[in-house]
Design goal:
With 212 residues, the chain is α/β, with parallel strands linked by helices. 33% of the residues lie in helices and 30% in strands. The chain contains 9 helices and 11 strands. Strands 2-3-1-4-11-5 form a 6-stranded mixed sheet, with helices on both faces. A 5-stranded mixed sheet has the order 8-7-9-6-10. Strand 7, helix 5 and strand 8 form a beta-alpha-beta unit. Helix 1 crosses helix 9. The longest helix has 14 residues. The chain is elongated. The structure holds 1-O-pyrophosphono-5-O-phosphono-alpha-D-ribofuranose. 1-O-pyrophosphono-5-O-phosphono-alpha-D-ribofuranose binds next to strand 9 and helix 7.
Amino acid sequence: MENRKVRIALTKGRIEDKAVELLERIGYDVFELRNKGRKLILSIPGEDIEVVLAKAADVITYVEHGVCDLGVVGKDTIMEHGGRFFEVLDLGFGKCKFALAVKKGNNFYDGYGVKTVATKYPEVTRNFFESKGIDVDIVKIEGSVELAPLVGLSDGIVDIVETGTTLKENGLEVFEDVAPISARLIVNTVSMKLKQERVTEIVKLITAQLPQ
Ligand code: PRP
């Protein structure tokens, strides 16, 4: 890998503001990050750091390929996508959970037939039920997965629950928690060796800003 600047990939959207705030608390000038317009590669004045903004799964791809040294991405995407990188810090923001949800009052495990679960996260769902030794049919959904049990496509869903409002407004409820989620800092395996000093320095600066 060329010896260029340190490049950090941030996940666009929900956790973007918190990640930018974190960089600001370190003392970085985040003006460009806050006034980015349509620009995709942003610089931090006075630092050898470049920031790129990408969709969660792409943050992992960029870090895995080594074109970004560090990444901020949700545990949900890490669990679904997997990949070869170091997950070095739990950043403590973007907290929510994966949960198995059903129509209010239903017992997911009632009856003998193989149950159907709709989800945007088939890997997470597969691993969850495999760890319990339960056979389920998984249906991959791209949009609002809450719809699936309402129209009779599935017995339950595995999805992200943050406030619980989406479930409540659709007559669904959490039946079982699957896994906690929060934003994580990931590091490319090669950068960890070739840029060890700088990467370690940045990780330490970030760690110092996290609540103890
Ligand atoms: C997630 C998830 C739920 C909703 C839960 O979707 O799929 O629909 O958030 O949040 P709540 O518990 O606070 O109601 P998101 O908004 O991330 O959009 P997505 O469909 O792009 O995943």
